[in-house]
Amino acid sequence: MSLLEVRNLRVGFATARGWAQAVESFSVSVDEGEAVAIVGESGSGKSVSALAIAGLLPRPPARIETGEVLFGGRDLLRMPERELRMLRGRELGFVFQDPSTSLHPLMSVGEQLEEALLVHERLSRAEARARALAALAEVGIAEPDERLAAFPHQLSGGMRQRVMIAMALICRPKLLIADEPTTALDVTVQAQLIELLRKLQRERGMAILIVTHDLALVSGFASRTQVMYAGSVVESGFTSELIAHPAHPYTAALLRSVPALDDALDARFGGIAGTPPDPTQPLPGCAFAPRCAHAVAACRERRPKLSPLALQPSQSGALAISSRRVACGEATRLLSEATSA
Ligand SMILES: Nc1ncnc2c1ncn2[C@@H]1O[C@H](COP(=O)(O)OP(=O)(O)OP(=O)(O)O)[C@@H](O)[C@H]1O
Ligand code: SF4
Ligand SMILES: [Mg+2]
């Protein structure tokens, strides 16, 4: 069994404009030591899914309508809050989009790191301090002694993100959930932090679920990728295969909007014409239909389900595609046409 197995997660918000279906259907599995990426445009439901998995979604306004989040076989959605709190930090680490929401502004870096250890492990103050120093050094912070006494506002953005990673990793979790851990940082720092995560993953055998706008940034790191659109997973597969032969028109459009996948580390998915649907006004058929150049009448009638790509064995072999799942009724035809053209 996978370390993390999320099944059929469905999450909405009661808003002044009505029910907003932020996540319609989200499933993912992450094996021990594996890195899996979640990509998609802004508003596609990546953070809401990540927060729901962590049990950190404020409820209300959010409501988890269906789903299971099995971590080591136990359902986190049905675990008492006290147990979940102990699990978070010790077995599950998190790095969120905005460090200011996760670092306490009035506590020094050292106090915050040591507190995490003192809550989860029975250590003396001196032992906690030594571990905090080692954690800062491990994430590449120079002069960690001095940094321990610093407050978050005294650090650069890149350094704050490193401290967040150190906090998330200090109790040696089995799984790290990282939601856009490098957004808002400059390109060089982004690449350094991704390299740091990759190194920690390898050295510790830690699993990572990484949320990103930027498939180029994680392409050499996450073995599998899930693409989200309008609250649903629309394509999943091995990252390198998905980049070489995207099967869903949305994935293809995302990849086309990245100027040069190999070297554009700062590439952003932003170049797809049209806008995603309003989550308070879900469409009956495929949510991508209004923006899709390949839409046919049937696309607007029925919502395609995420299903294994139905290629002939000779085609899958020739394209080197395995274990691909796609939510598009036209995917097989489009992929065959694209590769025979
Ligand atoms: N507290 C909230 N109340 C109402 N709607 C919300 C709330 N939080 C998120 N949403 C909605 O849920 C949907 C998914 O948001 P989410 O933050 O998961 O997107 P995302 O994929 O992480 O985007 P980004 O790349 O910008 O971080 C959006 O339509 C968003 O407006
Ligand atoms: S189901 Fe139809 S509209 Fe949706 S992505 Fe596929 S071809 Fe486009
Ligand atoms: Mg987000």
The proportion of residues forming helix, as a percent range, comes to: 25-40%
Strand order of the largest sheet: 6-7-8-3-9-10-12-11
The number of helical runs is: 13
Catalogue the ligands.
adenosine-5'-triphosphate, iron/sulfur cluster, magnesium ion
Structural class: alpha/beta
Strand content: 15-25%
Q: Which regions have little confidence, pLDDT < 50, spanning 5+ residues?
A: 260-270
By DSSP, the count of extended strands is: 12
**Rg over C-alpha atoms, rounded to the nearest angstrom:** 21 Å
Shape: globular
Q: Taking all residues together, what is the mean pLDDT?
A: 88
Report how far apart the termini are: 41 Å
- Please, what is the oligomeric state? single chain
Order of helices and strands: EEEHEEHEHHHHHEHEHEEHHEHEH
For the biggest sheet, the summary is:
8 strands, mixed
